[in-house]
């Protein structure tokens, strides 16, 4: 598909996300009240959630970021559109005029442990969740583009559109002139078997945290034994076993993030390698996985190999968690990330 904004023969590789975007309203409470109860929250903090933070990270790396999901019409959708405009993200997906985009209320309460908290989520789905089989029918990625799919798009009606795109993408990555990346998120255990099968058959690059990777391994019956993981050690051996077993089952590239330890990477037919992270003092309460995935996607669009892309993502994530705003990690620009690599 010719993109008239770029002109003929001037295509710049971009990252296109099929993920959903909504508004998060974070509230800190002493404890979640029982039914009929009452609680006071301090300073509610609205922010953009979902795949927005992946696209924000892409844009901060200097790569074109495009959102192919659905946006609505209303207060929350306006907030999202303004944030897109402010952060260099282009919306190329469908617009719905009959309903607003959705929002999530996140109640954050202390768990009784000094270093942890419990998050309770209440979701109000909007336009982003009400797609159909035609949602991504007109999407035609070009050479060297990276298409990002998030697990949050596989839970509702929009999943049929994702499934249609996967079927068009085929089962052989070598025949595609673009790269497909999936980060399954914590909703992976709720994705139906048919959708999961089509995802696996498409053989994308899988970008997971350790919990997501273990859930995926369990669902696919990959040979994993976590009995060696203890507080005192065993993580390195287990991660090699996890990546070897899951990577062989997926027959696809696999990236598993483990916080300050960086990430373990395995490509089909290759050895699992550990790319060390950059330990730093963190001030975040929300996951930095979106920053890592977005930076990795941006580097792949720039033509970097998977290992090099993950190294830059490790560095960017380390900077991000040290400079969070309202608990949300703030992804740095490319120069800051590379400076840490030096």
From TrEMBL:
One of its GO terms (cellular component) is cytosol. Residues 14-324 form the Carbohydrate kinase PfkB domain. It holds the Pfam family PfkB. GO terms for molecular function: kinase activity. Keywords: Kinase, Transferase. This is Sugar kinase. It comes from Bifidobacterium myosotis. The lineage of its organism: Bacteria, Bacillati, Actinomycetota, Actinomycetes, Bifidobacteriales.
């Amino acid at each position: 598909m010719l993109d008239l904004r770029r002109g003929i023969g001037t295509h710049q590789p971009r990252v296109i996300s099929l993920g959903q975007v909504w508004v998060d309203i974070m509230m800190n409470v002493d404890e979640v009240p029982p039914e009929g109860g009452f609680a006071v929250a301090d300073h509610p903090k609205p922010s953009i959630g979902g795949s927005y933070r992946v696209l924000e990270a892409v844009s901060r790396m200097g790569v074109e970021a495009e959102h192919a999901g659905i946006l609505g019409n209303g207060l929350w959708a306006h907030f999202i559109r303004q944030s897109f405009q402010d952060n260099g993200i282009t919306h190329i997906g469908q617009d719905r005029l009959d309903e607003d985009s959705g929002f999530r209320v996140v109640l954050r309460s202390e768990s009784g442990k000094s270093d942890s908290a419990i998050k309770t989520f209440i979701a109000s789905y909007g336009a982003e969740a009400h797609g159909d089989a035609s949602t991504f029918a007109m999407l035609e990625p070009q050479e060297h583009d990276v298409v990002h799919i998030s697990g949050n798009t596989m839970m509702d009606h929009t999943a049929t559109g994702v499934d249609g795109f996967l079927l068009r993408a085929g089962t052989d990555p070598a025949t595609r002139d673009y790269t497909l990346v999936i980060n399954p998120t914590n909703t992976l255990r709720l994705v139906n078997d048919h959708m999961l099968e089509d995802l696996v058959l498409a053989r994308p690059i899988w970008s997971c945290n350790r919990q997501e990777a273990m859930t995926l391994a369990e669902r696919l019956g990959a040979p994993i034994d976590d009995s060696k993981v203890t507080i005192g050690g065993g993580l390195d051996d287990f991660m090699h076993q996890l990546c070897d077993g899951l990577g062989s089952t997926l027959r696809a590239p696999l990236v598993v993030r483990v916080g300050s330890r960086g990430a373990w990477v395995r490509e089909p037919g290759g050895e699992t390698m550990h790319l060390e992270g950059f330990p730093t003092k963190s001030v975040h309460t929300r996951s930095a996985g979106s920053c890592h995935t977005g930076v990795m996607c941006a580097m792949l669009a720039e033509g970097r190999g998977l290992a090099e892309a993950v190294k830059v993502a490790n560095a960017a994530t380390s900077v991000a968690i040290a400079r969070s705003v309202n608990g949300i990690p703030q992804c740095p620009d490319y120069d800051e990330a590379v400076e840490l690599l030096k």
